[in-house]
């Protein structure tokens, strides 16, 4: 088991905060180094920060969203939201919400941009 403690200063209230998280790894002890573990943990959280966090903190509130149909409504919404994230990455908006509002007002331009912008590989 791995214990990681992080500290940060909460910007709005200038208060020192601390959080401890525990991780389980299947790496053998001989190949388990601090650098390798940090890389794996940061890699996991980079997915959360680059994608899931944007989806849930934007106007979509994806974690609270419950499609009403049993069919593939959730999958369709996820694909559409992924396309919007791609548009947001292709253009410089101050926020995901601003980009969403812009593209909802000009859907034809948004579709053209989706067709022409090269995929971003990370």
Overview of this protein structure:
There is one protein chain. With 122 residues, the chain is of the alpha+beta class. The chain has one domain. The chain contains 4 helices and 2 strands; from the N terminus they run E-E-H-H-H-H. Strands 1-2 form a two-stranded antiparallel sheet. The longest helix is centred in the middle third of the chain and has 24 residues, at 34-57. The protein is elongated.
Keyword list:
alpha+beta, 4 helices, 122 residues, two-stranded antiparallel ribbon, single chain
List the helices and strands and how they pair.
Blueprint: E1 2-10, E2 15-23, H1 34-57, H2 73-90, H3 96-105, H4 107-116
Antiparallel strand pairs: 1-2
Helix pairs in contact: 2-3
């Amino acid at each position: 088991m791995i214990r990681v403690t992080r500290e940060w200063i909460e910007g709005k209230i200038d208060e020192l905060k601390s959080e401890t998280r525990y991780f389980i790894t299947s790496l053998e002890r001989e190949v388990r180094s601090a650098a390798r573990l940090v890389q794996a943990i940061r890699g996991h959280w980079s997915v959360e920060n680059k994608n899931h966090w944007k989806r849930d903190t934007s106007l979509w509130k994806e974690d609270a969203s419950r499609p009403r149909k049993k069919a593939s409504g959730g999958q369709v919404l996820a694909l559409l939201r992924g396309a919007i994230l791609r548009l947001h990455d292709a253009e410089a908006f101050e926020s995901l919400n601003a980009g969403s509002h812009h593209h909802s007002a000009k859907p034809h331009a948004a579709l053209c941009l989706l067709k022409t912008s090269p995929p971003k590989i990370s």
